[in-house]
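pasting input
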Amino acid sequence: MKLALEKATRFLLTAQNSDGGWGYSARSGQSAPEPSCYALLGLQEGTSGSNRKGLLWLESQVCPDGAVRLQGDIEVHWTTSLAALTITRLDPGFLKLPACLLELLNMKFGKDAAAGWAWNEQTYSWVEPTCYAVMALELAGRGTHPRVLEAQRMLESRACVGGGWNQGLRVSFHRELGPLPAQTALAMLALQNRPASRALILEAARFLLARVQDEPSTLGLSLAILAFHATGLDYADLPEELLKRQNPDGSWRGAIHLTALSLLALKAVKEGGNGFKL
Amino acid sequence: MDSSSRRRRFSRRDILGIGLALAGGSGLGVIGSHVVRRWRQPQAAVAIMRAESYDQNLVELLRDGLRLYPDFCRSVRGRRVVLKPNLVEYHSDRVVNTDPRFVAAAVEVFRQLDARQVIVAEGPGHRRDTEWLLEESGLESALRAVQAPFVDLNLEPLFPVTLTANLSGLGRLWLPRAVLDTDIVVSMPKMKTHHLVGATLSMKNMFGILPGTKYGWPKNLLHWRGIEQCVVDVNVAVRPAFAIIDGIQAMEGDGPIYGDRVEAGVIVLGDRLTAVDSTAARIMGIQPGHLTYLYRMLERGGTINEGRISQRAEPIEAVQRNFVLTEAFQYMRKPLPIVDFASGV
């Protein structure tokens, strides 16, 4: 595993853009918040040159009002949560972090969204952006804020029949929808410290373990390992499965976000550090 | 003047006369509107090809279809082409996506037309996990067999494009580099019914180029701003050059994901997307004027009127079959004679 981790680290460092950030692929050239956050968490070396440069890039994306936006955009981007989580983990003294967390707490959703967070402001709330926001706020010590608690209850209410989560709809057009691995793992992470959710987490874990082993999904597999690790559950031979899928260049499918999440998951298993453990 | 003299001035005959004049005027107005709006629709040509199964020689079939458009074929030479299939979700027992064999055949044909580069690109709007979708759907192995690259449009670098139509009110759309940097975009949808807009064909398929990293999974902001409005916005912004609809196996009922398979045995193609979609809708037994995004394209150079579309290869009647529509869309079967006539549909 040591060699695999080294190769993945080397891949990420080589793929870093000159501005310090990472795109979704090595050839992309345009840095983006999501892969940069995962790369920073995966590399887990807050003071090394590359990571420092990456962190500075991420922090430069936080606007004075605390929001993260696409360059030239006026709308708050859903990665504000991921940026808050990453900065809280790696640089909790960052000057704009309180504004970033406040921006998250004030982010609006559409009229018919019960609670939680949306991909874009003023729209329906979904499982994935809600999980990122809950994790960021809980890690920053705002886990008891009413909006966080409400969002956690929303996650519980949207669990699929039989366990697990999907994008956030139990039923659509009178049809019951089934769970998906990545969203299930993220919801487990967001609810990891909530005793009331334990039964849902155990149910989801059964679904996840049965599903991710055979599925061609690096995203599902890496997030599943992180979720099992954070919730103290047995991840069986999932790490071996993930290792088997590594490319000779050290990446997973040449994708930065998949490589970074895989690195993060394998490091959690080997060294114990888990960027998503709250 | 007393009231009796006023009554005399407007006798029954007078009122009848005025009524007829008004009706005649309205009638002339309707006819005039029809003539103008029909005449404004550019002439288009749409080809309908029969194809019973994916085991046929699809390369030959698609090549024959494309040869009906010699100007377009010439324009492909030396250019970079993006083929945009529909890859949205996978269920082994349903025909949700453009068939991988169909996409691979199109890659070969565009290479034969001397395209400089042929890329297959899509930004799945339902599933975030493109790796899973590519493998399970079989598209990954089909593209590997023809050594064609796939670009996940959800994860591409993004650039804002100002909207000229702006029906959504978004002002601009963030579009992926792979689409903006290409010469020719070809929309390759699956022929399906759709439980929100009636039918999803080549124009609605272009929704898939809008990136999840900006608009989320699902692309919820665009739903809130109006699917039809966003479909018009993205098509006006990108102007796909050609459409090839996979209707060999199509979907009816509760589409675009949970509908039932229908062996429609047809491929519809052409260089004007509104005309291609209108023809496909007619094949499905849907009055195209009911598809709001098509109707709204009338003001933007679209062609819907059957009289303005010359049919190549097979006629519509030879392949027409009424697709099952959900209760909410039964009205799409029936024409709106006066409205359709007046609007040139």
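fyi The interface with chain B takes residues 23-25, 28-30, 32, 34, 70, 72-73, 77-78, 110, 118-120, 122-124, 126, 128-129, 167, 173, 175, 180-182, 215-220, 253, 255, 257-258 of chain A (CB under 8 Å).
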